[in-house]
Amino acid sequence: MSPSPRPVAAHATADGSEADGEQPEEPKPATKIEEMPLESKQKMIMEQRAKMKLAKKLRQRRKRLVRKRRLRKKGRWPPSKMKKLKNV
C-alpha cells in the first residue's frame, strides 16, 4: 500500500489562531439545495466546479513534481539525458 495521497500539514501558533491569517468560514445555516432559488443553485454548482478544477490542477502539479523528483533521484531526468546514457 502506498501512503495517503495528501499528507496533512499542521501549523500551530502561540495564540491558537491560524498561521495563514485566513479566518475559518462562518457556519452557514443548513439549507437543502432543493429549497434554494434556481440562480443560487447554479451559482453554488459553478463555485463547486471551480474549486474542484483548481484542486485537480494542484493534484496534477504535485504528482508531476513528485515524478520528476523520483526520476532525478534515479538519474533519469531530464529526458534529454537519456540519449547520452544509451551508449553507457
UniProtKB/TrEMBL annotation:
Signal sequence segment: none
Biased composition (Basic and acidic residues): 25-40
Positions of the UniProt region annotated as Disordered: 1-40, 55-88
Domain of life of the native organism: Eukaryota
Matches recorded under InterPro entries: Ribosomal_cL37
Name of this chain's protein: 50S ribosomal protein 5, chloroplastic
